[in-house]
Amino acid sequence: MAAAAAASPSPSSDLFDEIVMAEERFHGEGYQEGYAEGSHVGVVEGRRYGSLHGAKIGSEIGCYHGFALTWHCLLQKCTDEKNSKKLRALDSLIGMIQKFPYEDPTYDKLQEDLEKIRGKFKQVCSMLNIQSDFRIGTERSSLTF
Question: Beta-carbon neighbour count of residue 97 at 10 Å?
C-alpha cells in the first residue's frame, strides 16, 4: 500500500506542478498572442507604407510622363536637327515610362528602372534648358522629386 501511495501523485504535488507549469504555459500563450498581434500590426503598417510610397512613385512617374508628352507635342512641329535629338530623347523617356512595371511591386529592378527614368528625365530637361526640380510659385507649393 505504501508503494501505491508513492506511485500516485498526491493532490498537493499536482497543485504544485500546475503552479510551476502555469508560468511556462502563460509565457507560451503570451508569446503566441504577441506574435499574432505583431503580425497583424506589421501587415497594417506595411500596407500603409506601401500605399504611401507607391503613390509617391506613381505621382512622380505621372509627372514625367505628362511632361514628356507635352514637350513631344510642342516639338513635333519643328523639324530641325536640334529638335530631332530632343524628340528622340523624349521618345526614349516615354518608352521607358510605358515599360515601367506599375502593376508588379515585386519586380527585381524596380528601383534601378526608376533611377534610369529619373536620369533620362534630367537629360531631357538639360537638353530643353529647363530646371528639373520644377519649383513652381512659392516654396510651399513646390513639386520636387
Answer: 21
Spell out where the chain has E strands: none
Nearest-angstrom CA–CA distance, 83 and 2? 107
Name the region of 78 (left: φ>0; alpha: ψ -120 to 50; beta: rest).
beta
The answer to whether the pTM exceeds 0.70 is no
Q: What is the pLDDT of residues 23-59, one digit of tens each?
A: 888 888 888 888 888 888 888 898 898 888 888 988 9
124's grid cell: 531631357
Angle between the N-to-C axes of helices 11-75 and 81-99, in degrees from 0 to 180, rounded to the nearest 10: 160
Whole-angstrom distance, CA of residue 30 vs CA of residue 47: 26
